[in-house]
Design a protein that fits this description.
By secondary structure, the protein is mainly α. The chain has one helix at residues 32-40. The protein starts with 31 loop residues before the first helix and ends in a 19-residue tail after the last helix. It comes from Molossus molossus.
């Protein structure tokens, strides 16, 4: 029962993910890393291929 008051129990684990509003305060601006990944993976940069179907079907 004494472990509840230990300083170790009051610190988050080192591998805890950063979830805004859950494990870290909510910020209006996304982290720099997230903004860079969004630019690299944005769907506007990909060529539009309307002829391809989303899934192949065996008839």
């Amino acid at each position: 029962m004494e472990c509840r008051n230990s300083p170790v129990t009051k610190t988050p684990p080192k591998d805890l993910p950063a979830i805004p509003g859950v494990t870290s305060p909510i910020s209006d601006e996304p982290p720099t890393e997230a903004r860079q990944n969004h630019r690299q993976n944005s769907p506007e940069d990909k060529p539009a291929g309307g002829d391809e179907s989303q899934f192949e079907m065996d008839i």
